[in-house]
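Hi there,

I know you've been waiting on this one. I reran it after we fixed the sequence typo, so this is the corrected version. Both the input and the resulting structure follow.
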Amino acid sequence: MEQYVRELASRHRRSGVLVDTNLLLLFYVGGYDRSLVERFPRTADRFVAEDFDTLNSVLGGFEKVVTTPHILAETSNFLAQLHGYAKIGCFELFARSIPALREDYTDGAELSRQPVFVKLGITDTSIIEAAAPYLVLTDDHRLYNFLADRGVDVLNFNHLRSFG
């Protein structure tokens, strides 16, 4: 498995990695305050502080981090659940980093016409539409299985945890 992960990362080093919402949220929460990962309910129910370290290391291996407007909106909505200085700090980090992201856009009307839309929703449909040239990184089992079944290069973050 570790060799497979290395091959995928190497293949997509230049094209980039498309990061799903929960992982982008982990990146901003942990980037502001690593210890907040285990205190913020939205991340604490699925991640530990070391997961931020793993994610940060993985993302550092790519020339581009890719997102969609729908991922950004979901991430923003989840960050808005924070309070006080943590909310301000995370949003400042989020705002500073957005210009460095490559944003892949597909019109919402086009996404809504895709058969998968009614099963997976607009954000996952936007990922499916954008996925082709990138490595997709997600912790969502349904999305992972959907993409893997269609031959898309995808990694489930849960599989990376064993590598540290």
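Quick highlight: The radius of gyration is 15 Å.

Best,
R. S.
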